[in-house]
Amino acid sequence: MSSFLVISIIIVYLSVIFYVAYWSEKNSKSLWVNNPYVYTLSLAVYCTAWTYYGSVGLAATSGLKFLTIYLGPVIIIPVWIVLMKKIIRISKGNKISSIADFISLRYGNDRFLGALVTIICVLAIVPYISLQLKAISETFNVITNHAINETSIINDTTFYIAILLAIFAAFFGTQNTDASERHKGIITAIALESVIKLVFFLVIGIYVTFYLFNGPSDIYDKASVLPNFEIQQTIDGLEGGFNWFFLSMLSMFAIMLLPRQFQVTVVENQREKYLKTVIWLFPLYLLLFNIFVIFIAWGGNIVFQNQGVDADLFTLMLPLKNNHEFLALLVFLGGFSAAISMVVISSLALSTMLSNNLIIPYGFLRKYSKGESEQNTGSIKKIRRVAIFTLIIVAYLFYKNFTLNRTLVSIGLISFVIIAQLAPSFFGGLFWRRGSSKGAKYGIIIGFLVTVYTLIIPFTIDSQSISSSFVNEGMFGFGFLKPYELFGLQIFEPVPHAFFWSLLFNFMVYVLVSVNKIGSYRERNFAEMFVDSDKYASMHEDAYVWKGEAYVSNIRNVLTRFLGEQRTQRALNLFYMKYNIDHKVQFADARLINFSEKLLTGSIGSASARILISSVVKEEEISLMEVLNILDETQKAKESNKELQDRDKQKDDFLDTVAHELKTPITSIRALSEILLEDDTIEYETKKRFLTSILSESKRVSRLINNILDIEKLASGREKLDLNNNSVKNTIEKSIEAVNQLSIHKKIQINLNKVDEVELMYDEDRIQQVLINLLSNAIKFSDFEKGIVSINATINQHKMEISVEDNGKGIAQDELVSIFNKFYQAKNQTILKPVGSGLGLAISKQIIETHKGKIWAENIKPQGARITFTLPLNTI
Predict the structure, then answer these.
(1) CATH code assigned at 745
(2) Which helix (H) or strand (E) holds 736?
(3) Are 284 and 369 members of one domain?
(4) 445 part of a folded domain
(5) Which of 121, 298, 465, 556 is the right S-S partner for 223, CB 3.0 to 4.6 Å?
(6) Confidence of residue 717 (pLDDT cuts 50, 70, 90)
(7) SS3 assignment, position 258
(8) Same-domain pairing of 244 and 344
């Protein structure tokens, strides 16, 4: 295929992607941009050129082992609804823009730790970016039938593609200095590319499986006669099982710790509820992407048996061998999409980390502390743009010098092992309070050095064809120091072997140092906020512990240098409104200190933000015990304030309801009285009817007031019970007699079922009041003319249980508890307007609880409701 044609198609394709990103930025509020599907598809940046080509290569040479790269994410995804929600809340609450910021903040804004994490990520991801460039270069040369030029950069198309990707990432990724803000253009473009690469991979899978061969069974039959086929399709015993386990764990860490995955999953998340879509759609995406991998691999082994074709290129070579160039072009574009998505988002994430955690805190912080807002903003953007270009160029050079003769999988897995060194400090920081910055730093360094010894040095020796006995004989000739068989462990392959030893040493150092070296009060403060994030999330700045002297004017000056006068003023106004603080206050408290650090974190990173704010305040040292006491007191104060607010709201609601209940009869009384007073010509019968209504409404007001006084006396404990020995059966019979006329009027039958003869100590008037209330309600809600109300009174577990049930419509499930609230009236009343004030059951509840009993409601079958209350058998 013509190189000019392929290059033209690449330019058109990149133009479309650029346009989609541009359109998305301009229409950032569109539903096409803001939805859970775009978010979930952006997570598919995990599927890079390694997935597109390397999985087929691994499946062709190692069988089903390629699945380990996807088993980890599928296993961990279901717990994201809990784990990732916690990470996202912490990140949003603290304006975190990278995994380096996240880890640094957890350990007290430790500047060196942030820089260390950044260096680890750069060392892990630059080879990974070079892997994508390798895939683009190799597939371009295959589809255009060109030989790879190992020396000339000027004639290398991949170099120019890398420059275009750098321009794209720099333009759309550095428009704002606040890196915690979302990049909707890039994310939408990546989501589109995720669809493209999946569709094109499915197309080639269907082509190989059903066009070149007659379905899966045909491929299997022909592949099964190839050498080593049976061994490749098994786990290969216990040793193979260990390798599978550690490779799956490696990919599990990668899906959460890779900078690009943290960027799309955490930083770019708009709504937590999107995770509900992720937990089913993302595994489905991975399943679809891998459903044809093994068939393409088998097909390639069959077609290219003993021909020396690179298994990584089977996806592209199979259509080319059969002269289907258009299909090969689609495959190339799918792999190209997979590669550029990873390059763009990884370079964006790394440039933010380099800027916020390495370059600014160690080189430009003093300059920025004296500069003006516009100058600082422009400088930060330039740093990130230069970082993007530098990263991609360095990755290109790495590709030219180290990866030309290596498989895609071998490079990718090394990157996974390096990035996995962040796991103990990351996950330990989320769930273990004692984890300290020293433990995290020493653990990461030791783990990385073990990785260098057991994996990177042997890889470099092999890729550069260096003559050395290091791999076969070990350092200084000691056999137990062989990098691939450290301490005589021979059951692992190189990558699982390095992963096992590096994580073991990393974890042990992290734990031992953290246990023996207690972190600072600041570390413990953030440890509490991270570990108990749900507890402190609602406290916001209140959860931050700080003591010292600070002036608002000094803090405002620092903020203005980075945010500008207008943005700083707006932010401070919101802060004052939130905490009801006087705008003229001169001294800053812990809340403003924390709020200011958060504002700066997105632009310059958490460590730099802390340094800048610390430079204009006088901070006092606080003991760990003080931190815990302050947090505890703040939490209690917050809960107390919330309880008071709830009580005030309940009081307001109660008074509103009382006013409403009183207003109706009083309005009626007033209206009728005015008519009687002003009109002397009213006939006797009409006058009598009006006066009867006035008397009735007056009684209603009187009942309501008495009920309110009753319930308040009972609730406050001011009501004294008249306790005497009484017969339960006699009390029930008196109550039935009191409602007898009402039941006759409504043609309701009252049945006195089983009643145990027993005498108890209680206030008979009050218990009779409860029974009359329950009986009246049961009569009201029973079927008219077919209603049956039943009463039972039995001894059960040292308590007297008295129940009243009806055969009406029952009580809605969500009302079984709320019907005992003051002024609550059931929704399914059998008449248009509710009768009564809604205080009857509330009073009944108070009376029963005053007698040390309980009352509850439940539905019965086939229809109806039952309300039961208990009275203790012992003397009160």
Answers:
(1) 3.30.565.10
(2) helix 728-738
(3) yes
(4) no
(5) 298
(6) low
(7) coil
(8) yes
Residue 857: alpha-carbon gap to chain centroid: 38
Task: Select from 386, 408, 430 the last residue of a domain.
Answer: 408
Residue 442 within a domain: no
What is residue 789's three-state secondary structure?
strand
* Burial (Cβ within 10 Å: 0-12, 13-18, ≥19) of residue 55: buried
Span 722-750, pLDDT tens digits = 788 999 999 999 888 888 888 888 888 99
Structure confidence by residue, pLDDT tens digits, 746-800: 888 999 888 888 889 998 888 888 898 898 888 888 877 788 999 999 998 888 9
- Is the domain of 790 the same as that of 682? no
Sequence-ordered list of residues with C-beta below 8 angstroms from that of 185, at least 6 positions apart, any chain: 20, 21, 22, 23, 24, 25, 172
Residue-wise pLDDT for 65-117, tens only, equals: 888 888 889 988 888 888 998 999 888 888 888 999 999 989 988 889 999 99
The answer to whether residue 643 scores a pLDDT higher than 60 is: no
The answer as to whether 517 is a domain residue is no
CA 320 to chain CA centroid, Å, is 45
**H or E stretch including 858?**
strand 855-859
Q: Each residue of 153-182: b (16+ CB within 10 Å) or e? A: eeebbbbebbeebbbbbbbbbbeebbbbee
Q: Name the residue among 58, 53, 78 with its Cα closest to residue 68.
A: 58
Q: Report residue 569 as tokens.
A: 């003023």
Residue labelled with tokens 């990103």: 21
Encoded tokens for 132: 């994508």
Same domain for 399 and 308?
Answer: yes
Q: Among residues 54, 44, 46, which one has the least CA distance to residue 411?
A: 54
Residue 538: pLDDT band (50, 70, 90) is low
Place of tokens 């909707």: 184
For residue 465, what pLDDT is reported? 67
**How far is the CA of 414 from the CAs of 392, 458, 495, in angstroms?**
19, 11, 7
Structural domains in the chain (count): 4
**Both 645 and 763 in a single domain?**
no
Is residue 729 domain-shared with residue 792, that is, in the same domain?
A: yes
The answer, as to whether pTM is greater than 0.85, is no
**CA distance linking residue 495 with residue 459, whole number of Å:** 11
Helix axes 423-431, 494-516, angle to 10 degrees: 40
pLDDT, one tens digit per residue, over 539-578 is: 555 566 666 778 888 888 888 888 888 888 888 888 888 7
CATH number of the domain bearing residue 368: 1.20.1730.10
The answer to whether residue 679 is domain-embedded is yes
User: What does the DSSP assignment read for 383-429?
Assistant: HHHHHHHHHHHHHHHHHHHHSTTS-HHHHHHHHHHHHGGGHHHHHHH
Q: Which domain holds residue 192?
A: 3-408
Contacts of 571 (CB under 8 A, 6+ apart): 559, 563, 595, 599
In the predicted model, what is the mean pLDDT of residues 396-423? 79
